[in-house]
Write the structure tokens for this entry.
Amino acid sequence: MGNKYEKIVALRREFHRCAETGWLEFETTIKIIKYLMSFGYEVKYGKEIHGERIGLPDNDIIEKHRDTISTDADFDVSEILDGYTGAVAILDTHRDGPVIALRFDIDANGIEESNDKDHRANMEGFASKNPNAMHACGHDGHIALGLAVAEQLAKEKHHLSGKYMLIFQPAEEGVRGAKSIVESGILRDADYLVSGHIGLGAEENEVVCGTIGFLATSKLDIYFEGKPAHAGANPEIGKNALLAASICALNLHTLTQFGSGMSRLNVGILKAGTARNIVPHKAFMEIETRGENEDINRLLLQKVHHVIEGSAKSFDVKYRVVEAGGAPAYNSYPEDFIDGLAEILKKKGMKVTIGKSLGASEDITYMMNEVEKNGGKSVYLMFGTKLAAPHHNNRFDFDESVLSLAYEAYLEIIRSLL
Ligand SMILES: [Zn+2]
Ligand SMILES: [Zn+2]
């Protein structure tokens, strides 16, 4: 493993440096494609791997980011630079066998990396070069793993059968990217889908096989629009969007009472108003809902819409709700399949737990549902490791030795599916 391990770590650090958030993974995507091409892959990218994209950043943010990065490539990058990020690598052995899809998410978080001197990325010179973008969830490790697995499969090509599809998915944070990739139809004939995550709920050195407890979730942007007025002279002709949003935020937080299972709601952002002496006519909120199953999340969403409508009505303001992300629940797994995989990993000396709960949301569930709906099977792994700080924290880091554990697990599982 020595040499290979060092290579994976170097890749992880290379991608950590160029952290880019969802739909802005321009440099990241171009780098990934270059590596994949150098391994001899046919690579799909741009519009052909996407359907409808949700939760896109504003155009000026896309343009600004485009200007700050290096986009040198000897292939057409124009669609990538329009936010059709991510890539799918295909390896067809032209021998009978299953279609195996692997998925690695590639986006960073919208958080400024810590500049503490004792944060390892600073000590060892691989901190994010982009402001307000940091790999604080481990997706830099996922990219490195995807590329390392890709290189190895290409090397073993003459001993393999079937077809391999390595999906480098953008915009997992905010659960946005998977839906778009699924809509492209690329997963339709997949017999297996294998994916996973570093850290999360797994204990140190533990491999969780067959993760469950993925919560259904919806992400909404809410816009209230009223009418400005002089706050002293004639406030009565104003329509107050700030008050509508405030009452909305408070009432939304009363909605999560369900006897049938757990639910969550969070108002994460509320911005309103323009000046001290003007009746605020604009307000903006970012909220999310989660539910243990589809029914809970659906019912919660209905209630959310009632509260938004009622709040707007109270202050006679207009409102608009935009879907910014979402993912279905996933709560059970194909038992025989997962048991079989767990046995294989155990034989390799790994500490394996079956069916542990994620207790969060991950848009891989779009892909898992798609593959299972078509008769295929899917598995989601968690690779336990020591974390320097929790996920999404500006001092997040993981013990890089988990990369070799994950790499071995992926390869063992792939080989067992042939
Ligand atoms: Zn995350
Ligand atoms: Zn993540």
